[in-house]
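Um, can you check?
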Amino acid sequence: MAIPFAGLTDKLKQFLADQSWRCDADGPSTCQLIGFRGCRINTPAQGLSLRPGDPSLVTDHYDDVMLLFGNIAGGSPYLGYVPMTANPGLYWTRKGRCPSVQPGQYKYMRGPHSGHNALRQADAPVCVIRDLNRNGRMDPKDLFDYPVYTGINIHAGGLSENIGRWSGGCQVIPGGWDGAHWLQLYHRVYGTARQQKIFHYTLVDFAFFVQWDNARQAGVHSRHILYGSFGPAVHDLRVKLGVYGDLVDGEWGPKTDRAVRKWQRAQGQVLPSGIVRMP
């Protein structure tokens, strides 16, 4: 099933709201970033569809999609997309302990990467899983981690279709620093939204978004909270799990995440998702 681009911006905003995530796309001169792991674009007319295979498996190809949407200075909306990888390349995966960003919402800001203007991980942790056994997939032997200041950035990659060394956990756009894909993102981040200080980058498996959309079309309110969610629902969950001292505004941070995954393991989940469905 394909999800068309017509009406997609409003759908994305509702998706963020239902997961209690922040949306940067309200108002003029704004940019919101959403990464869909396991997503492909057949043609612009056909819209988005699921990529065959396991989206969490390292393929060494740029076979995910990043959406960019918001409003230009005059207030008119825009929606764009670029290919990307949400998984590290095989070179670093084979080195061991390579981080792979997990579903959630994270804070980014403008900054340098390898001498170029890029998006850098802000002063906030990112939830990753470290591939301890170097098999290129998530399994119970791997390690959940929450690195801060480690530079899990968003930047341009190489000209080859293979990722190789270009990503050791970063979210990478193919085609080089002068390529059309990176320049589209650069124009929005450094041009359209130049006054915006923080960019809330949301990463999810595209299958999760499709399930949410199917439920919505069937008249079912499908709502979840996970890393980066904030507000009363997260606060109540933290109290239930006995978690205190996480980030402000009831935001789901590392302490909440560890507690949720521990609870999910106790409930029999061999691979805890870190996702809690709300009534």
